[in-house]
Amino acid sequence: MCGIVGCLGREDAQSVIVNGLKALEYRGYDSAGVAIHSGQKINRVRAEGKLINLQEKLTEQSLPGQLGIGHTRWATHGAPSEKNAHPHTVGGVSLVHNGIIENYAELRENLIAQGAQLNSDTDSELIAHLIHHEISKNKLDFIEALKVVTPRLRGAYALLVMSEDRPGEMLATTNGPPLVVGFSEDSFILASDLLAIVPYTKNIAYVTEYETVHFQENKYQFYDKNFTSFIKEPQQINWTDDLVEKAGYSHFMLKEIFEQPRSMAKSLEPHINVENQSIEIKSLEPHSEFLQNLEQVYIVACGTSYYSGLVGEYLFEKISKVSCKVDIASEFRYREPKLNPNSLVILISQSGETADTLAALRLAKKSGVKTMSICNVEHSSLDREADMQLYMNAGVEIGVASTKAFICSLSLLNLVSGFLAKKKGVLNIVDENHLVASLMATPSHMESVLTCDKFFAEAAEHLKKYKGFLYMGRGVNFPIALEGALKLKELAYMHAEGYPAGEMKHGPLALIDEEMAVVMIAPKDDLYEKTISNLETAKARGGQIISVGAVNDNKLKELSLNFLPLPEVDWNINPFLSVIPVQLLSFHVANALGHDVDQPRNLAKSVTVE
Ligand code: F6R
């Protein structure tokens, strides 16, 4: 949720940290701060609001020193304000925290009872108090203090800790939230995400669940859950740093929407044999026997990833002929689900770090059920822990609203359902060739749909005046209606609902009048006639119809105030195309309203807390 960065051993520690925070700003952006050890004391600068406010303060008051920590915050406990911004300093202990402490109230009460002076409303400051207390009152060593404090914390934490009396030392620990160490020459850079590290080094090591690293000058030591030391060798990654540029687009989100055809092609590439037009998912081959006998698929995810899972439900049931159930991770994990032992739980997550999705994976594994992750971030927690892994290959997604990862999840779900159908003997070679050919043709269809960008750029001024939007679709386009509504809510802060079109008469019809825009996704599929009847019902009540449908559908065009044409494609390909207009609608309306599209209020890219 928040972004943390640390640096040890570089003269330019402050700028390494600030550059790192810039790369991590997508994780939280309501306040930021940095603390640097000068050799004698820890100096700290914090600012409310976006990182630029901190940068401005630092131009007036730069912080010299080779050891430091920084933070970009997404508020959980305590309002976004300077006093609640990290680093939190208590006595000589200074720390940054990503996560959420669930026994916050109890810890706070105990500390107040012991006479602690609290300077913020955060859960994170309490950790600094606890560590300080162990060092100053109980005379524990730096790492010993951490060892006794962390078991008292319930919830999630990744921490970087410095102490004023230890100018060359830093502690890094996590019980789950992501933490990576970069090793360059004689220095170390730590961060929540590789993005902050790759400009400096490609030599990295992940700090995984319940691990701690103690850095001392140019040495480091890893410790496991029991604080027993062990050796972890760094690994070399092959990333390039130009992935985080806007490449001429005004916003990351717009760039990422336009990258979708290429991302989709890249997600398919490793798993299809172009010559034979066949699906070949090599990493799943060792699981062939299991897949052949599979009786049930569960898909578990959050937000946009959950909606891609809802499309997956249609794919698994229609293509693989396997029963499929889709769950929201935060519900699944507490529902005590009765999982069929002969089933597969698929977890979808762009970040691979979403706390609820990760908890769902662990629950499935504990029940003895096999798991498969579909992630964009390689080596993320989900990726590391699942029994089978597939990568979206979408490239770095910076805009907080997920776009290209959604497309790539859809493409992998198509491939997995086809692969499973093959293993189960329910997909003949002709149908397999057709499925692969239609998936391969999709990126160029997507290119053509992207031309509707111009329409939304022009129409946004008018569209932003509606009091609300009702999105409707049927079959695989019902999840697209949900996705359209989510995107408009999160970016334009407008009221929007996604509904299966056939459900309208059971309630939402009452919402419709001349001030309500109705976005109807009506491709020429099996349910076309029914969708058109639903559309006529909405129009008769004054609904302002914006429709998305087949290019030559004159009837739909006539019924609509605005009509966005899509190429005519198979039912399973439609969502790849119909999602583009709803993404662009949200982008342009939000932009016309003057909102920060890449960093919408109250949200963060990687939701590592419950
Ligand atoms: C919406 C959006 C969120 C994420 C959700 C899950 O545009 O981005 O709804 O889809 O927070 O995130 P991941 O996919 O990283 O698990």
How would you portray this structure in words?
There is one protein chain. This protein is α/β, with parallel strands linked by helices. It folds into three domains: 3-244, Glutamine Phosphoribosylpyrophosphate, subunit 1, domain 1; 252-427, Rossmann fold, CATH 3.40.50; 451-592, Rossmann fold. The protein has an eight-stranded antiparallel beta sheet with strand order 3-2-4-1-10-9-11-15, covered by helices on one side. Strands 5-6-7-8-12-13-14 form a seven-stranded antiparallel beta sheet. Strands 19-18-20-21-22 form a five-stranded parallel beta sheet, sandwiched between helices. A hairpin with a 2-residue loop joins strand 12 (211-216) and strand 13. Helix 7 runs antiparallel to helix 14, helix 14 (429-449) runs parallel beside helix 19 and helix 15 (453-463) packs across helix 19 (574-592). The site of fructose -6-phosphate (F6R) has 15 residues, from helix 9 and helix 16.
